[in-house]
């Protein structure tokens, strides 16, 4: 039994750079497919929700930041994060404000926050939000410009 364990450990010690390389490639390919799935299916399988920006978190050495937001579907709360194309001072003004979130029916974790589409405080439910979006055709071009998101696993964990 101990000999089998040594054989496995020797195998991983010898080939860990190759295993790590293929693991990184697999993660990048899966992330690309999740993003591509959203681009292809958001018109047919997309649902709307009201998202509230909770905070801003920086990454890198002060090079960028993203919004951390939450939204509710039914009785369950979901969290996500979205890249931002705003200056930090402009982004700070959006904390605790409500914006449109678009998610896929078959994968609720594949969602995007649209900071360019603020939601009025009078809208209380996702059904009212769906009617509101369908009444204003000027929103459609904004929906077609899909905002950036974090890696797929950031919304799952």
How would you describe the overall organization of this protein?
By secondary structure, the chain is α+β, with helices and mostly antiparallel strands. It has a domain at 46-144: OB fold (Dihydrolipoamide Acetyltransferase, E2P) (Beta Barrel), CATH 2.40.50. The protein is built from 5 helices and 5 strands; from the N terminus they run αβββαββααα. It has helices at 2-45, 88-92, 126-135, 139-144, 152-156; strands spanning 46-59, 64-73, 76-83, 98-104, 107-118. It has a 5-stranded antiparallel sheet. The radius of gyration is 20 Å and the shape is elongated. The model has no long low-confidence stretch (mean pLDDT 81). Keywords: Membrane, Transmembrane, Transmembrane helix. This is DUF3592 domain-containing protein. It comes from Chryseobacterium carnipullorum. The chain crosses the membrane at residues 15-34.
């Amino acid at each position: 039994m101990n000999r089998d364990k040594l054989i496995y450990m020797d195998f991983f010690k010898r080939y860990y750079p190759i295993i790590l390389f293929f693991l990184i490639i697999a993660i990048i390919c899966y992330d690309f497919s999740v993003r591509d799935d959203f681009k292809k299916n958001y018109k047919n399988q997309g649902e709307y929700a009201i998202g509230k920006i909770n905070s801003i978190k920086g990454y890198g050495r002060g090079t960028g930041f993203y919004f951390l937001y939450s939204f509710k579907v039914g009785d369950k709360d979901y969290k996500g994060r979205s890249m931002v194309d705003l200056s930090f001072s402009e982004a700070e003004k959006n904390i605790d404000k409500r914006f449109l979130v678009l998610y896929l029916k078959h994968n609720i974790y594949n969602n995007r926050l649209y900071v360019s589409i603020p939601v009025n405080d009078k809208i209380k439910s996702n059904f009212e939000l769906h009617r509101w979006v369908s009444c204003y055709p000027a929103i459609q071009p904004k929906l077609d410009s899909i905002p950036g998101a974090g890696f797929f696993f950031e919304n799952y964990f």
